[in-house]
Design brief:
The protein is mainly alpha-helical. Helix content is about 70%, strand content about 5%. It has a single domain, classed as Ammonium transporter AmtB like domains (Ammonium transporter fold, Orthogonal Bundle). Strands 1-2 form a two-stranded antiparallel ribbon. Strands 3-4 form a two-stranded antiparallel ribbon. The radius of gyration is 21 Å and the shape is globular. Belongs to the ammonia transporter channel (TC 1.A.11.2) family.
Length: about 425
């Protein structure tokens, strides 16, 4: 039986928030990836996301949770151990970074943090769609979770050294998005590009399906940012409102620039602008006011647009590295922008409401916070460059990182023996003589 500490409202909100964050991945990014890629890669792309969701959960409960949120082993990592004992799951949840407790059980906290870990791997997958070997992906997911994600999570959220210094990452601009964007870019460079014919012509096979996934992503973000006060609090409401303000402004900004530059509004562009707004507000959601959210939306709808559509086409590094869905721009660039803007725009009142002792950002006279945000970003970047490269090199000794040439030519049917759409006869995958 739970003790007097249990607040059923907080527990209900935390479980609801965790569930809608989970829906961002399954089916959100599953169907977004399945619709936004070339038809021959729809199954493989969706399955990479689905596999990651399941594999992360198993690794998370066996060792990952306590590496990210458990007792300190080192200043940047917790002690690996299972999070499965019944008495432990029923006990009151700890909030390591704040040195406090929540009014719900550990089981709720473990599940809530799992869906964040899972979506990070799924976002990363967007950089390597259309050529990474599924066998290599199977090995990469639990290894990267263990040696990269858990280190960043403990450092910023689990009471590690960056948390103790005072770096603010409200809901994962650094831990999730900057990590995924940098790691995805490194992985894309090491695995190599798609076939030239795929890279030159990679038209979405179902834009409407991609929009369904995008919608689940947007509204699921209410749980993403609204769940991080760990209570059904006033600050949760601020975070949800700011999330939607920044996202709407970013989407509109991206679309306006598309019209000015390309002379046409693009649905895919609007989805990109939506994502950059969601990412950029994430490290700031509950510590900036509505005006700050608007500023973040304007910046996230314009700077990543420029890096993707101008620098991405002119700089040799971006032309050489085949980041399939532009995850570097939508997540790494937007994530670091959001983190730095947090160091400028965070207000003293909202920092206090979130339980931080930080006296606001640079705009409120605390330039030191901006410097801390730079330090946090630099650590996450270096961590993910090094760890991703090392892990992929080790995996390459076990199995090729890249699919064989025949699979690259054929796609889903060669890799999984399945195709996304049956256009022949009554569900047959191949024409039948006489049809």
């Amino acid at each position: 039986m739970a003790g007097h500490w249990l607040n059923t409202g907080d527990n209900a909100w935390q479980l609801a928030a965790a569930t809608i964050v989970g829906l961002q991945s399954v089916p959100g990014l599953v169907v977004l990836y399945g619709g936004i890629v070339k038809k021959k890669w729809a199954i493989n792309s969706a399955f990479m996301a689905l596999y990651a969701f399941a594999a992360v959960l198993v690794a998370w409960i066996l060792w990952g949770y306590n590496m990210g949120f458990g007792p300190k082993l080192w200043p940047f990592l917790g002690m690996p151990s299972p999070a499965l004992m019944g008495h432990y799951e029923l006990s009151q949840a700890d909030i390591p970074a704040a040195g406090a407790t929540a009014a719900f059980p550990m089981a709720t906290m473990i599940f809530f943090q799992f869906v964040f870990a899972a979506i990070t791997l799924i976002i990363l997958a967007g950089s390597v769609l259309g050529r990474m070997s599924f066998k290599a992906w199977v090995l990469f997911v639990p290894l990267w979770l263990t040696f990269s994600y858990c280190v960043g999570a403990f450092s910023l959220w689990g009471g590690g050294w960056l948390a103790q210094l005072g770096v603010i990452d409200y809901s994962g601009g650094y831990v999730i998005h900057l990590s995924a964007g940098i790691a995805g870019f490194v992985a894309a460079a090491m695995i190599g590009p798609r076939l030239p014919r795929d890279r030159e012509s990679f038209l979405p096979n179902n834009i409407l399906l991609a929009l369904v996934g995008a919608g689940l992503l947007w509204l699921g973000w209410d749980g993403f940012n609204g769940g991080d006060p760990y209570s059904a609090s006033a600050d949760a409401g601020v975070a949800v409102l700011n999330t939607n303000i920044a996202t709407a402004v970013s989407l509109l900004t991206w679309t306006i620039i598309d019209v000015m530059y390309f002379k046409k509004p693009s649905v895919i562009g609007a989805i990109q602008g939506m994502i950059t707004g969601l990412v950029a507000i994430t490290p700031a959601a509950g510590v900036v006011n509505g005006y700050g959210a608007i500023v973040i939306g304007l910046v996230s709808g314009s700077v990543p647009w420029f890096t993707m559509n101008v620098l991405g086409k002119r700089m040799s590094l971006f032309r050489k590295v085949d980041d399939t869905l532009g995850v570097f721009h939508t997540h790494a660039v937007a994530g670091v922008l959001g983190g730095l803007l947090t160091g400028i725009l965070a207000t003293p009142d909202l920092c206090k409401a979130f339980g931080l002792s930080t006296p606001g950002g640079w705009l409120y006279g605390n330039f030191h916070q901006f410097l801390l945000q730079i330090l946090g970003a630099a650590f996450i970047i270096v961590l993910n460059v090094v760890m991703t490269a090392v892990l992929l090199k080790i995996i390459s000794f076990i199995t090729p990182l890249r699919m064989d040439e025949e699979s690259l030519l054929i796609g889903d049917d060669a890799v999984h023996g399945e195709e996304a759409y049956a256009f022949y006869g009554e569900g047959d995958r191949k024409p039948v003589l006489g049809d």
